[in-house]
Amino acid sequence: MEAQETSGVTTGLLLRHVRRHGGEDAVAEVLRRAEVTLPVEVLEDDSHWVGYDTRVRLFSAAVDVLGDPGTMRAVGAEALCNGVNPGLVLLMRSLGSPRLAMQMLPRAVPKFTTTSTMEVLDVGPTHAEIRYRLDEGFPPSRLDCDYAQGLMSAVPEVFGLPAATIVHEECQADGFPACIYHVSWIGHHRLPWRRHGNAAEAELLALREQLRELQLAAAELTGSDDLAVVLERIVGRAAAAVLAPAYLLAVRSGDGTRTLVRSAGIGPGRAEELAATLLAGDDLGPNAVVVDVASGRRHHGYLAALYRDGHQGMVAERSLLSAYAGYAAATLDLLTALEDSRRGESRARALLDLAHRLAEASGTEVIVDAVASVLPRIVGCTTAAVMLWEPVAAELRVVAAEGGPEAERRAMLTARLLPDDSFDLLGLLTRPEGAPLRLPDSPAPLRGLLEELGLRSAFAVPLLAGDTPLGAVVAGWDDDRLDDLDPQVLPRLRGVADQAATALWKAQLHSTVLHQSLHDALTDLPNRVLFTDRLEQSLRVVTGEADAVAVLFCDLDRFKNVNDVLGHTAGDELLRQVAVRLRHCLRGADTVGRLNGDEFAFLLPHLDGPEEALTLAERVIDCFQEPFRIEGRELRVTSSVGVAVRTGPDGRASRLLRAAEGAMNVAKQRGRNQIATSESSARQSPSAAPSLEAELATAAERGELRLRYQPMVELPAIGDDPRNPGEDPSGCPAATGTLVGVEALIRWQHPRLGLLPPSAFLALAEETGLAVELDLWTLGTACATLADPVARDRRLIVAVNLATASLLDPRLLPTVRSMIVRHGLPPHRLHLEIVESRSLIDLPGVIERLVELRRLGVRISLDDFGTGYSTLVWLQRLPVDQIKIDRSFVTALPDDTTSLAVVRGVLALARELDLDVVAEGVEQPEQLRALREAGCRLVQGYLLGRPSSDRPLAGAQEPLAPVGEGAG
Fold first, then answer.
1. Which of 595, 620, 644, 961 has CB 3.0 to 4.6 Å from 678, enough for a Cys bridge?
2. How much of the chain exceeds pLDDT 90, in percent?
3. Smallest Cα–Cα separation from 552: which of 455, 618, 622, 466?
4. Residue 733: its pLDDT value, please?
5. Over 720-758, what HEC string results?
6. Residue 289 and residue 319: Cα distance in Å, rounded?
7. Can you tell me the distance from the alpha carbon of 474 to that of 403, in angstroms, rounded to the nearest whole number?
8. Are 439 and 446 in contact (CB under 8 A)?
9. Sheet containing 383-390: which strands, arranged edge to edge?
10. 894 preceded by cis ω (within 30°)?
11. Residue 689: helix, strand or coil by DSSP?
């Protein structure tokens, strides 16, 4: 017998990788070169183990056949997608993080090999140092080392993260005492939030595969009525729950006179010794995971997964092995009942038939019908029924019945049991031993049911999944025979109940998994898969040209701003409320689904024409008129809807859905909050015309971006003007301002649309993530402007506006530092402006970046001051040098006393905090005079100069002309 040194998990992963990259012929060639005669299906069985030498030969043959030196590392790295044991994935996921998973890796090693040991030397949130050593007597193999590295790199992928990076400088194959691996990975906080969904997908796939394995195990266990065969299968299929080098099953026979022992991976003598220890109630030690093989009926014995000395199982393995042992216990219950009832061939057939039907059943209706139909033959009752507990309605409902006249069965299927002062309904559902029911002394609800069915007595056994009540199985008789029942009747009834409960729980789990795979987890609406399937079915049954099917594609307007401003929790709550409103827009046969993010779609089958689709589209638009209530505040959101209609047969779902989405994009381009049809989409958005987003992404490369410079002027104090210290007869201040700097303003010279102002494209840039690229371009161009000889001689400053995304982008600081060095600029002449109404949302990140910029000598200006979140606390905490009074206050001067008071207050506060103040939007002489009288020295606006494409007043060496002369 070959040594048990390499798990079938390893050989299975290797052969599946070879098959994927070379086909079946490559698999056969690998086995030939490795001189392995075992069948492929055996080598791909997780429970089969081979020797270390066989493992190394297979590794070497696979590398040679595929011609890829990195084969073994790829085998390990592809473990998740290549069918690694689902139980192992669930165990790793249960640990919660890559860090804890790395700490538990030494316990996972025995699931792959018994020839190596692993030690975690150091571990942190995103790194680990691991020592891996092959035991004495086994020659080190670099291919084995590559495989181990691949497996370790895949650990973060279990949690939805990118694969780990491994640095391996000390290898046992090179003569070192052991292999040392430095493993690092990216934490969740550095990934976009959508990536986190990948972890849930990995867990769902593992759950599905685990469920499939357990279903196969259950079907196999119940596939024979031979006790010896079943015991062998229990041990052989234990790897479906827990991977281990050896397994031991020790149970007692049905009559309690014999001990039955089965094992894998250990010798018979040793197995008998360990079985005796178990059945005596003694502990096998830390290297054994032992669970009870027990059901509600009886304790059969023990099932153990065994590791070699010094190794232990993983933390959550006991629960997985217990789940499998539950299947084994239910099967042994069934076999015990069969052994006790050999005298009745019909009864035996009924039990086997029930077992097979339950093992193959995937729906609740099939399960309850199977149980009800065979129960009279198994226990000899007059009438049988299965009742299911409805927790929402708090009632016990009859769902299947067998026996008695047809009229009585129909009456039974309408029966409901509700809680009553005299009737302990929950007690009936939670007592594992069951409850006898006699007509004379039953509480009123039950007595009425028994009388209606013509029964004098009954016995009810609950259907329990752990402690969760699912319902009850009821066997009834037309006479009072409970005291004279065959002693085996109640055990058989409880055995059937246990089997039924297991099958029902499995069916509910299957139904839940199926529902989750076809519905959106947030809104419980059909997802894209289910929506597309229903659309295809609707198009398939279209009868003629008069029959129409429509799709409405609905997208929320500026939903990204909700997430950015209020956070993703508020965004999720908004999507849930939107889903509720959209459901109310449906007709009877319609379907609404969530396709992705804030995208929803309606399927409208059997329409008389496009007008019906437009009517519903208007209803969708109207349902957004009322504000949403999110976290105690009102939020108004609009939607853009695209409509596509297919008339007649032979339509394609993907084409119709794509047409509706294209129409929705047209509605967005037209200004949002409106409806567009696929026909208008074809007219207004020809395929030859690129989208504005695509053009904006390449505008800088094509040289279409421009900068305009608006002057910033310093006014002399009243009485300081040497030419005219007073006022001219017109009443305008005779101040002569001095140019001290400019503000750089971006424009887009669009090849088709002409020169576009920022309002035409900056919102699009922020939505599509292009704002950072525009800001970095503006920054570089503005710094080049500062290097202009005239600007350098005049010591002008240049102000550049930054979006919040740019301020937090890691490229900003290096770009600023590079521009300062490249152009030899004094840093204080570069002013970076942040808009306080947006930037303060992520205050901790903003403050950190502002501090870093000021360390370079750059000055920080707080733009639009007074319009957003500005308070004394914010102003105290923000490291800024200058504030710019928003134009909304300046426009109201000088007549609005409130605005004037605000301006004076800001100026006084700035003096105390040693901050500069700039007033924006000065367009009238009266506004300028009021600002000057209030003590404001720095101003900008159309009165002082419009944005110009020239270098900052090239050649202007004198102070500006008196303000008001020639200003447009």
1. 644
2. 21
3. 618
4. 43
5. CCCCCCCECCCCCECCCCEEEEEEEEEEEEECCCEEECH
6. 10
7. 12
8. no
9. 416-417, 395-402, 383-390, 468-477, 457-465, 435-438
10. yes
11. coil
Instruction: Determine phi and psi for 296, rounding to 5 degrees.
Output: -65, -15
Within a 10 A sphere around the Cβ of 100, how many other Cβ atoms? 14
Q: Could you tell me the CA-to-CA distances from 458 to 38, 412, 416, 453, 474 in Å, in that order?
A: 56, 14, 17, 11, 7
Note the pLDDT of residue 39.
92
Q: How confident is the model at residue 719 (pLDDT cuts 50, 70, 90)?
A: low
Name residue 749's beta-bridge partners. 755
Question: The tokens of 272 are what?
Answer: 């008998």
Burial class (CB in 10 A: 0-12, 13-18, 19+), 849: buried
Q: How far apart, in whole angstroms, are the C-alpha atoms of residue 142 and residue 149?
A: 10
pLDDT at 579 over 90: yes
Report CA 687 to chain centroid distance, whole Å. 35
Identity of the highest mean pLDDT range in 343-347, 476-480, 834-838: 476-480
Q: What is the DSSP letter of 162?
A: P
Q: Write the DSSP string, 430-472.
A: H-TT-EEEETTTS-HHHHHHHHHHT-SEEEEEEEEETTEEEEE
Pairing, β 633-635 against β 628-630: antiparallel
Neighbour tally for 325: CB within 10 Å: 27
Question: Is residue 445 within 8 Å of residue 423, measured between CB atoms?
Answer: yes
**Three-state secondary-structure class, residue 423:** strand
- The closest of 393, 560, 364, 386 to 463, measured between CA atoms, is 386
**Which pLDDT belongs to residue 62?**
94
Nearest residue to 141 (alpha-carbon basis) of 6, 301, 307, 329? 6
84, pLDDT greater than 60: yes
- Tell me the CA distances in angstroms from 232 to 217, 247, 264, one per residue in order: 12, 11, 9
Lowest mean per-residue pLDDT among 204-208, 215-219, 668-672, 680-684: 680-684
Pairing of strands 675-677, 639-647: parallel
* Token pair belonging to 876: 């105290």
Which residues lie below 8 Å from residue 334, measured CB to CB, with a gap of 6+? 222, 351, 355, 495, 499
d(CA 399, CA 385): 8
Question: For position 193, what pLDDT does the model report?
Answer: 46
How far apart CA 391 and CA 393 sit, in angstroms, is 6
Q: Would you tell me how many other CB atoms lie within 10 Å of the CB of residue 611? A: 9
Per-residue pLDDT tens over the stretch 843-867: 567 788 888 999 999 999 988 776 6
Q: Give the tokens for residue 473.
A: 């199985």
One-letter amino acid at 543 equals T
Extract the tokens encoding 507. 């069916």
Which residue, among 381, 357, 360, has the nearest Cα to 370 in the 3D structure? 357
Which range has the worst mean pLDDT, 292-301, 404-413, 586-595, 765-774?
A: 404-413
Residues 6+ apart with CB under 8 A from 39: none
> Are 938 and 714 spatial neighbours (Cβ–Cβ below 8 Å)?
yes
CB contact set of 838 (below 8 Å; sequence gap of 6+):
803, 804, 868
Q: What is the 3-state secondary structure (H, E, C) of 578-641?
A: HHHHHHCCCCCCCEEEEEECCEEEEEEEEECCHHHHHHHHHHHHHCCCCCEEECCEEECCCEEE
Radius of gyration of the chain (CA): 38
